[in-house]
Amino acid sequence: MQRFLAALIMLCAAAPAALAQTDIYLKTERAGRGKVPLVIMEIEAASARERTSAASITGVIRNDLEYSGLFQTLKSEESGAQGEGRTAGALLEGRLSSEGGSYVLDAKLLDFSSKEIIFNKRYRFGDDAVRSAGHKLSDEIVYFLIGERGIATTRILFRRAQGESKNLFIVDYDGFGERQMTKGEIVVSPLWLGQGRFCYTSDRRENWDCYLVDLAKGTKYLMTQWRGINIAGSYFAPRDEMLMTLSVNGNHEIYVLNSSGKVLRRLTRNRAIDISPTWSPNGSEIAFVSDRGGTPQIYIMDAYGGGVRRLTRSGSYNQSPAWSPRGDLIAYSCREGNLYRLKLISPDGLVEETLFDDNLSYEDPCWAPDGRHIAATVREGGTNYVVVVDIDTKERRRVVRGEFADWSSLPTERAGASSSR
Length: 421
Hints:
Helices cover 10% and strands 45% of the residues. By secondary structure, it is mostly beta strands. The chain has 2 domains: 7-150, Rossmann fold (3-Layer(aba) Sandwich); 155-407, Neuraminidase, CATH 2.120.10.30. The longest helix has 17 residues, at 51-67. Mean pLDDT is 89; it is low at 1-32.
């Protein structure tokens, strides 16, 4: 699939006086020309106290930009001028100092050729936020160069088997900062409800109840406890509407609830099993799995349960649809022999692609907010891992041991920092 496979530097031809007032964007078109080179200089330490943290921030920024799939990071101006025959698009300089009990990071992004300033940023943070500062600066670079928000400040929910328990964890998108959220439970279907809230289903009360956790408030409460299963599938924040599979009437049906647990409407009424619903980005349609045709296949219906149509035609066992934030693709798992293939399909069913043809199974895909990266469960050597896939470059990165990942949304506002341009 040719979805923005290349990077093209769009520079406005202007006199120096006018150029200082012109935004510079590196537009990605994915036409096959590769990544845009960026020079990321070592963050300068004002004294020995800041040296280790400065090196850490430099490493975080380089990794974030490489993980984005958009950039090739270079370490010096000389390499930027000669990297693979292309001039670098931009250059980052920074200095880390201390004021009182805080760090202060002054960062400057420059157009590599003209040395015109794209932005100046100042970040103030404590010892416990060194990596976070690097992530925020990385996302600023992506935003100013690409015009889209980066994902370096996002997090991933997942579960991990621990003896007889299967507990819930949160980790930064790059695999650092792991935190355990449950203990001694069997957890399924973790789901973010924005940045600071999530829900999950647990058997702690000998029923598959759904719990909601608010990280900012430090609270957890029982959201739904209908008899049978209460499994959240997808959340549409603008209407506070959550798709859930309930079996209260003995059959697996799809309902819409709000985050207080109130049932708003029932969507499916079918003797078949209907599960795994996922909202389209605009909340107008829902993809879900049903065996109403004899085998599990992916269907699409409108937000009120009407207009049901079958999407997948190939494969006898398709599951776990996830609608891209861009709206153009649905990721899902398709069983072929003893393996599950990670597939992408357009909502009209006209375009379909298998991402990998290897000896690994890819299950339970979920999208990053950028619509470019997918987290999936991959089993290797008898162990489950959360692996992140770049659908454009086909690069794969193992993040953490675990399964059933769900990716957080972006913060409601871009990371704040004092700035000048």
